[in-house]
Amino acid sequence: AAEEGFDLEEVEGAIEEAGHGPLPVVAVVGRPNVGKSTLVNRIIGRREAVVEDKPGVTRDRVTYEAEWAGRRFKVVDTGGWEQDVLGIDASVAAQSEYAIEAADAVIFVVDATVGVTDTDAAVVKLLRKAKKPVVLCANKVDGPSGEADALALWSLGIGEPHPVSSLHGRGTGDMLDAVLEALPDAPQQLFGGPGVGGPRRIALIGRPNVGKSSLLNKVAKEDRVVVNELAGTTRDPVDELINLGGVTWKFIDTAGIRKKVHLQSGADYYASLRTAAAVEKAEVAVILIDAADSISVQDQRIVTMAVEAGRAIVMAYNKWDTLDEERRYYLEREIETELGQVAWAPRVNVSARTGRHMEKLVPAIETALAGWETRVPTGRLNSFLGELVAAHPHPVRGGKQPRILFGTQAGTKPPRFVLFASGFIEAGYRRFIERRLREEFGFEGTPVHISVRVRE
Ligand code: GDP
Ligand code: GDP
């Protein structure tokens, strides 16, 4: 490395950074209008104004990457939803519960100008039960005169209120310091970042009515064991152990699949929050698509969520029993144009109704997990890169030819590579390298991260 103009420390630093495991997750919870979305925007430094006047807006995403004091983490935004038929307390409880479950730490937002409400008290109960570290954000303290309102929130009994103005940024830095302190050094391994032992964790996801619960019932038969069924609680069973192909798998959040939630509004939002929480906890996402229906933006969002979370992915096209020849023709075109971002994922064409190709599901999952865990030895990677760069050099720009000098795999689950280069490597060339890496080493069923370091 030294001859190539990178010093060792620089190389090691880059490898460590690229190889980071799963990021810790911070959930922002609280009742409507306390300023959760405003706070999330501030934390992630989002420029566009996404705080909507209209409540109940469905967001594309609920999980964002953020950084504070050099530490990266994910933020789960539970703003942007609406009270529904369940009543406000139940809605707040439901959305908070999903978010808290997936989180390593929680920011509980209270409107200090309003003070403690019954709904706030209900959230406190959930927080106590979940035993996650909590940072109390006393929001809307826009100036010194509001500090007294913040102090009143000691009465919640969950520790120090941090006076914050999400709108103006006042106090957010101190609060984020407290959040970082509350975060465990490594993300929770209980439900799991990737890398935990025990049964492999599967999230079965897809938009409503694609056949998730039908598929689950088909594969589970009588053979299931409910985990997380805490004695003496009324809590829904969340995860189930299911034996498939002689192997025990843990299906994440099956309660969310089995129990049909009837909500007048905000149902899509709940669904996406629940999906995001399940994906965070899983190693592999089985994404179910209704093959009888046109591939929709919602399908694409779910796929994007799983790709961005860096999970192994299997694409399952359901309701195959209903397809005629014409639909099959158009389906293939749609897959090509709409789902190109997961062209590398193993695919099964199934019918939860007839049981068609159920036996192909497990091999597909195993293939995806194998790709996800692939490690390419540095020597092999570099001989491959050397040949590639010699045969297909980067285009000359401004009289110079940027070159990939060497590379290494910094991590797995999913595979992460760092390439060291003599100049700026264009996006097109990066994609070309990813394509060739896949051709050479497989990586079936897994996203692949490539970062490039340029020599000064
Ligand atoms: P959410 O429903 O909890 O996500 O709340 P929003 O982020 O949508 O905020 C609700 C309202 O409170 C909006 O009109 C915000 O502009 C306002 N708001 C949020 N944070 C602050 C703050 O720190 N100070 C003041 N004065 N208003 C705020
Ligand atoms: P979920 O909302 O994703 O859990 O979807 P469900 O499992 O509730 O299925 C939605 C509807 O599609 C139900 O009426 C199912 O009977 C039907 N369905 C599910 N899988 C299949 C399938 O493979 N073939 C056919 N023809 N219908 C299916």
UniProtKB/TrEMBL annotation:
<dbReference type="InterPro" id="IPR032859">
    <property type="entry name" value="KH_dom-like"/>
</dbReference>
<protein>
    <recommendedName>
        <fullName>GTPase Der</fullName>
    </recommendedName>
</protein>
<dbReference type="InterPro" id="IPR003593">
    <property type="entry name" value="AAA+_ATPase"/>
</dbReference>
<feature type="binding site">
    <location>
        <begin position="318"/>
        <end position="321"/>
    </location>
    <ligand>
        <name>GTP 2</name>
    </ligand>
</feature>
<dbReference type="Pfam" id="PF14714">
    <property type="entry name" value="KH_dom-like"/>
</dbReference>
<dbReference type="InterPro" id="IPR015946">
    <property type="entry name" value="KH_dom-like_a/b"/>
</dbReference>
<dbReference type="InterPro" id="IPR005225">
    <property type="entry name" value="Small_GTP-bd"/>
</dbReference>
<keyword id="KW-0677">Repeat</keyword>
<keyword id="KW-0547">Nucleotide-binding</keyword>
<feature type="domain" description="EngA-type G">
    <location>
        <begin position="24"/>
        <end position="187"/>
    </location>
</feature>
<keyword id="KW-0342">GTP-binding</keyword>
<dbReference type="InterPro" id="IPR016484">
    <property type="entry name" value="GTPase_Der"/>
</dbReference>
<feature type="binding site">
    <location>
        <begin position="30"/>
        <end position="37"/>
    </location>
    <ligand>
        <name>GTP 1</name>
    </ligand>
</feature>
<dbReference type="InterPro" id="IPR027417">
    <property type="entry name" value="P-loop_NTPase"/>
</dbReference>
<feature type="domain" description="EngA-type G">
    <location>
        <begin position="200"/>
        <end position="373"/>
    </location>
</feature>
<dbReference type="InterPro" id="IPR031166">
    <property type="entry name" value="G_ENGA"/>
</dbReference>
<dbReference type="Pfam" id="PF01926">
    <property type="entry name" value="MMR_HSR1"/>
</dbReference>
<feature type="binding site">
    <location>
        <begin position="77"/>
        <end position="81"/>
    </location>
    <ligand>
        <name>GTP 1</name>
    </ligand>
</feature>
<feature type="binding site">
    <location>
        <begin position="253"/>
        <end position="257"/>
    </location>
    <ligand>
        <name>GTP 2</name>
    </ligand>
</feature>
<keyword id="KW-0690">Ribosome biogenesis</keyword>
<dbReference type="InterPro" id="IPR006073">
    <property type="entry name" value="GTP-bd"/>
</dbReference>
<comment type="function">
    <text>GTPase that plays an essential role in the late steps of ribosome biogenesis.</text>
</comment>
<feature type="binding site">
    <location>
        <begin position="139"/>
        <end position="142"/>
    </location>
    <ligand>
        <name>GTP 1</name>
    </ligand>
</feature>
<comment type="similarity">
    <text>Belongs to the TRAFAC class TrmE-Era-EngA-EngB-Septin-like GTPase superfamily. EngA (Der) GTPase family.</text>
</comment>
<comment type="subunit">
    <text>Associates with the 50S ribosomal subunit.</text>
</comment>
<feature type="binding site">
    <location>
        <begin position="206"/>
        <end position="213"/>
    </location>
    <ligand>
        <name>GTP 2</name>
    </ligand>
</feature>
